[in-house]
Design a protein that fits this description.
With 382 residues, the chain is an all-alpha fold. The protein has helices at 9-34, 50-66, 71-105, 113-118, 139-146, 165-181, 186-203, 210-213, 216-223, 229-242, 248-265, 270-288, 299-315, 318-329, 334-365. It has one domain. The chain has 15 helices and no strands. Helix 3 runs antiparallel to helix 15 (334-365). The protein is globular. Mean pLDDT is 92; it is low at 1-5 and 376-382.
């Protein structure tokens, strides 16, 4: 992570807003609706714009940083930032789920550690009035999540449904490294941005075709990120516009089309469409202008919190649901329970950042020391 002296606070704020949008929606709005036994909270914040905003940000900063060095080294650094913390969280989530879910479901928990983690649970009939059972992940789910491939097969269940962005980012980074290795021209990059937006727009009608959605074609389209390609296209377009390579009219048109596409993908929820459009405007303003002076007094705390956002994203949903269910079973009232879930998620995210994300990134991106020159075997003669 760059030092606070070399980064703009406006981008940190935008990233924080996006992640807070994801976290608040999943914890306060979605959790009580989809997770049995999780009680409602006294407040609901469910505007669907955060994850999409993060993908636009990812594409924009890929364009900013790709031209600073070799694409291969850039790719290594991007993957070193994403994968270690993700893989660690998948393992943690699997273990936590294998321990907590049988307890939530009232199933038998006898057996050793190996049986609890990998064996078949002792399923028992639920007591009258008990919440519906939670899904218990198996070894196939663990392996598929470690390999980032649940979207490619209906039989593989994501351990955390917010992880749908991770395979798309990895795929986009690999393709970006390949494309920029050939140093595309401005015209070619502009065509790439247009093409990515057009790809999502033209394929969106397939979502209402039952013969497509009920076939392996939908898994292929989903796995390749075809329906979300417009988000990467918008990030590229904002970068081009910031450098004067795309007109304001064209960027506005692309953002309007992208906002409408997001609006449709968010089940036509007007707040989601408006919020996503507002985030695109904020990103464009940040890309073209200087750092926002009003944020200078908060520069350091914003940088610190922004550094935690990725780990917060990783742990907030399913692990947050487990904590929320445990606190609900303990009959903790609304506001203390919400504070407890947020504090627990923040603490785990901080530990993940300090113990996994930072040291793994340093270790994987540390410059290699040059080898010692071989000593000459010849002997000097007089």
């Amino acid at each position: 992570m760059a030092s606070t002296g070399s980064r703009q606070a406006n981008w940190d704020l935008i990233r924080i807003i996006a992640v807070l949008g994801v976290v608040s929606g999943h914890i306060t709005f979605l959790g009580p609706r989809i997770m049995p036994g999780v009680d409602e909270y006294p407040v609901e914040l469910g505007v669907r714009m955060g994850a999409s905003t993060l993908l636009v940000l990812s594409a924009y900063f890929a364009c900013v940083t790709l031209r600073r060095g070799a694409p291969g080294r850039w790719l290594v650094r991007r993957l070193a930032r994403l994968l270690p913390a993700y893989l660690a969280t998948v393992l943690i989530l699997y273990v936590v789920s294998r321990i907590a879910v049988p307890l939530f479901n009232g199933w038998g928990t006898s057996g050793g550690v190996f049986e609890r983690l990998f064996g078949e649970p002792q399923v028992t009939a639920p007591e009258p009035g008990a919440p519906a059972p939670w899904y218990l992940p198996d070894v196939a789910d663990l392996i598929s999540n470690l390999l980032l491939v649940p979207a490619w097969h209906d039989g593989w269940v994501p351990l955390d449904y917010s992880y749908w962005t991770l395979p798309l980012q990895v795929l986009a980074f690999v393709l970006a490294a390949v494309i920029f290795r050939w140093r595309p021209t401005v015209t070619q990059t502009r065509m790439l941005a247009r093409g990515l937006v057009a790809l999502s727009v033209l394929t969106s009608p397939l979502k209402i075709v039952p013969s497509v959605m009920d076939s392996p074609v939908s898994n292929v389209l989903n796995g390749l990120g075809v329906w979300n390609a417009y988000l990467f296209g918008l990030g590229v377009a904002i970068w081009l516009w910031s450098r004067g390579h795309v007109s304001t009219t064209e960027l506005t048109l692309l953002c309007v089309v992208g906002t409408l596409t997001h609006f449709g993908s968010a089940n036509w929820e007007l707040p989601a469409g408006l919020a996503f459009g507002a985030m695109l405007v904020l990103m464009a303003v940040a890309a073209r202008g200087k750092d926002w002076q009003s944020l200078q007094p908060m520069r350091r705390p914003l940088a610190w919190l922004a550094a935690l956002t990725y780990c917060i994203y990783l742990v907030h949903q399913q692990l947050g649901y487990v904590l929320a269910r445990a606190l609900s079973d303990a009959d903790l009232p609304g506001w203390p329970r919400l504070i407890g879930v947020v504090a627990g998620v923040g603490f785990v995210a901080y530990l993940l950042h300090v113990l996994v994300e930072k040291p793994a990134y340093r270790a994987l991106t540390r410059p290699r020391k040059p080898g010692r020159p071989a000593q000459s075997t010849t002997t000097a003669t007089a």
